[in-house]
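A quick aside before the break. I want you to see a complete sequence-to-structure record at least once, exactly as it would be stored in a machine-readable document. Don't worry about memorizing anything.
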Amino acid sequence: MSRFIFSLSVLLGIASLGCVDANRVASPSEQRDLFDLPTGPTPAVKEVFARPANGYRRYHQKNYEFVLTSDQPGYTGRQFKTLIPDVSSGTQVPCLFYNPAGATAFNGKSAGTAEIDPMLPYVKAGFAVVIYGTDGGTVEITERTSIRSLAKQAEQYANAHAGLINARHAVDFVLQEFSQIDAQRLYTIGHSSGGKQALLVAAADSRIAGCVAWAPACQVSKDEQELLQKLGRARRSLSVSMLDQSDPMRFAARIKVPLLLVHSASDEIVSSADVLGFGERVPGADVLAVPSQNHFDIPDVAQTLTQKWLARLATAEGQTLAAANPASTANDVRPVSNRKSNRRTTTRGRHSSRQGKSDTPSIQSNPFAN
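That is the input. The structure line, written in tokens, reads:
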């Protein structure tokens, strides 16, 4: 998982993700703005790279770009990659939609140079993976980034409805192009800012059947809200309202699908309190604490539990997982049952030492032990 910092704090002395008014709720008119995406056909697609499966690599990789003009929403986040397990003809597999980490609260993240390694364990376990970009993420943000440049990226992100247009394009194309992807088993997954994106897509797209968010940026701080107003003054065409609505905490109640939230007491960027607070707003959510070293290794530490959780979800209706690598199969994981009425939330206190931690998450109550 690529390491990054929230450069907003570097630029303007802004605190990283923090708490906002827990009682703040979007009005119905605001909800229609963010989730009322413009209609239209799926853009044409250009294939830019292909690598077939072989004896060592049991998946097919293709890189694509949506064919769009620079003034169309979806343009700057037009690149995406597909990793499809090499399964027998007629076999259908579940699919994970993944937007990489590394964005701020108000811009997107390109998939052009995104690493595929973090998602390969899931491909080997029998899941297709789509790594997609979101608008407003083509320029890396550093301490030298100007407010004007940041405002431009924020505008691109807002015009793409906080990346929801990018996600819709990716889902539309994959369902049209790959008959081996099961349309009933589509899930979003992501870490940090990518976790925020996973939550937003799960709230917006009725085709999504589940969501995993590792240490998600699920709240926007008051300082970041003030910065948003500065960005709006720097670029008058920026839809401040659209970005203000993209705070997932405001729409947590829209998430009606199974949800796994992962947090760590050792996370120096996203607090456990934020993640737990978000989980309280989603009935039936599974909230797990893992003993990570920091924010960045949470996806690695949580990998085994995440795979089990996804495997149970993907086999809940009697389907099977056709693993590309037989050694990585998760077919022996028991199905999810009665998730909506059985909420399992676990917490863990702060570690007194970071030495000698196991790579296996340690939690007070195992949500997989029914």
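Two observations worth writing down. The chain is about 30% helix and 15% strand. Strands lie at 45-51, 59-66, 79-85, 93-98, 128-132, 181-191, 208-214, 259-263, 286-289. We'll return to this after the break.
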